[in-house]
Amino acid sequence: MAALITGAAAWVVGDRSADALRADLLGGVSRLDCEQTTPKRPAGVPAGTWRRMSRLARMAMALGAELLEPRPDLDRDALAVVWGCAIGEVVPTARFLERLFTEGPDRASPLNFQNSVYNAPAGHLSIAMGLRGLSETVAAGGATGLTALMRGLDILALDRAPAVLVIAGDDHNPVTVQAHRLGRTTAPVGEAVAAVLLEKTGEGVAVEVSCGVDPGGMSPVFARQSPLPDEPPIKPVPGARGAEQVIGLSMSMGLALVVAASAGGGVVVDQEGDAALTARIGG
């Protein structure tokens, strides 16, 4: 099914705008030396809630607020949320386990345990923004970004929500950096958290997702061209711009590339093993 992207935002290193991200991807301008930052608390999010959130959840929350706060017309009782995260909340999980094994069960942090759950960012977002509709969390390895997008499109097609907020992301942290090194991945490690608002009608750019690698004659094409840790060599997408050389390798980077494509049209390909998904934006 095709739908409209009526809002898009991404939290990656460097300039956060979709236009700037698109320009850097097209020009091969690396952002890898830019400082990784944490967003400021959105005005509508309680300070206590913000303090209890991980950095990854804060990035997701900031993007959700950026897309939803200008849209008071959206029914927050019906709006659906799809959160995509390939490897989950690594930092809270590592902190919880480290304290558990070094200091014992009595000293393990309940807050870190709570934040270690895969859908914790979606839960924080829904509570803080007053969202009471359908909420789903998906994980699909290197294709997590487009899998989350495809699930959002499915929800619209089934009329289970009038609009869907799709957010996907994996953060940069010492645990994943070490995993990349152990997996002998040569591509630089990065992070990407992105969000799109999907609706059937309104002002926006068309998007559709299909199985396989199928650019359909559209350009430019953005795709991950480097394997993930312990992943067999993937088949490079001909003519695609390898996004990991600009923003670093992130398993959920596909949705950030959709945000960039939404600024002028294009194609995004996500791969996981022998499976692949293609998103065509605009055109």
Strand order of the largest sheet: 3-2-4-5-1-6-10-9-7-8
Rg estimate, integer Å: 18 Å
CATH superfamily grouping: Thiolase/Chalcone synthase
Structural class, please?
alpha/beta
- For the secondary structure, the number of strands is 10
Q: For the record, what CATH class applies?
A: Alpha Beta
Q: What is the string of SSEs from the N terminus onward?
A: EHHHEHHHEHEHEEEEHHEE
Number of domains: 1
CATH architecture label? 3-Layer(aba) Sandwich
- Tally of helical segments: 10
Uncertain runs? none
List the helices and strands and how they pair.
Elements: E1 2-11, H1 18-27, H2 47-51, H3 55-68, E2 80-84, H4 90-103, H5 110-115, H6 120-129, E3 135-138, H7 144-157, E4 163-170, H8 174-182, E5 192-199, E6 205-211, E7 221-223, E8 241-242, H9 244-247, H10 253-262, E9 266-272, E10 275-281
Parallel strand pairs: 2-3, 2-4, 7-8, 7-9
Antiparallel strand pairs: 1-5, 1-6, 4-5, 6-10, 9-10
Short description:
This protein is an alpha/beta fold. It has helices at residues 18-27, 47-51, 55-68, 90-103, 110-115, 120-129, 144-157, 174-182, 244-247, 253-262; strands spanning 2-11, 80-84, 135-138, 163-170, 192-199, 205-211, 221-223, 241-242, 266-272, 275-281.
